[in-house]
Design goal:
This protein is of the alpha/beta class. The protein contains 11 helices and 10 strands. The strands form 2 sheets. A 5-stranded antiparallel β-sheet has the order 2-1-5-4-3. α8 runs parallel beside α9.
């Protein structure tokens, strides 16, 4: 019955005893680790996976330190492996003593890759400066873009894009932003300062009342920057 339960668990499962001997694995474990159970069962886990780095040996650490682990994203990248796992370990007790440990893990590589692709797409959109005249370019931010931004990378890429253009003014339109966090507001002030250092002027447009209230409540000061209520108004005057 125990074996049947393991085989019906959708995650990969491995069980070792207190002497680090592998006593049970399910089919999903065989698949994720590209092993056959007959090759690793009743084998010391350090012998079964001699080259595994210490940072992925959570089931071993569970016994060694008598501590359970729950890791949402674990790079599993060594030897033949190039994946990301989510892993949870549990201590197994018998008569109040540690008798072994169980690791339940799943491959989340596709989700991580998809998230990375999305992040790259968002960052590309966020730094898509559009020249509208010989002196001016526009950068429009949207709420989905802001939600996924990596601030430091956003500032760096935007400054690089601005530096590559032969314009003197960058209009940053935030009309589509209805809420943001402190990191975003700090990014705006840092980006404006960075623009000054590369000889560009950053002009802000389209602040919604709710966003203005958030910024003032949090003490952010944009004095020294030209700000217009709408993108159209900024374009008319620049």
């Amino acid at each position: 019955m125990y074996s049947s339960i393991l085989e019906n668990i959708r995650s990969a499962v491995m069980v070792i005893n207190h002497q680090y001997t592998i006593v049970s694995v399910n089919k999903q474990c065989e698949k994720l680790l590209s092993v056959k159970r007959e090759e690793i069962l009743n084998k010391n886990i350090f012998q079964a996976f001699p080259d595994a780095p210490d940072e992925v040996r959570h089931i071993e650490h569970t016994i060694k330190y008598e501590q359970e682990y729950a890791i949402d994203v674990m790079p599993y990248q060594w030897g033949p492996y190039n994946a990301y796992f989510t892993i949870h370990t549990k201590l197994i007790y018998e008569d109040g003593l540690v008798a072994g440990a169980m690791a339940e893990f799943a491959d989340i590589t596709q989700y991580i890759d998809r998230e990375e692709d999305l992040k790259k797409s968002v960052e590309a959109m966020a730094t898509n400066l559009v020249p509208i005249s010989r002196s001016t370019a526009i950068l429009t931010l949207t709420q989905p873009v802001v939600a996924e931004l990596t601030p430091g990378l956003f500032i760096e890429k935007t400054l690089r894009a601005a530096h590559s253009l032969d314009v003197s003014k960058i209009i940053l339109d935030v009309n589509a932003i209805y809420e943001a966090n402190d990191i975003f507001y700090e990014s705006i002030t840092k980006l404006a300062y960075g623009m000054q250092l590369i000889g560009k002027e950053m002009i802000l447009t389209g602040f919604r009342p709710a966003v203005v209230r958030q910024m003032t409540d949090r003490g952010f000061d944009l004095r020294g920057l030209r700000i217009y209520p709408t993108l159209m108004r900024a374009m008319e005057l620049n």
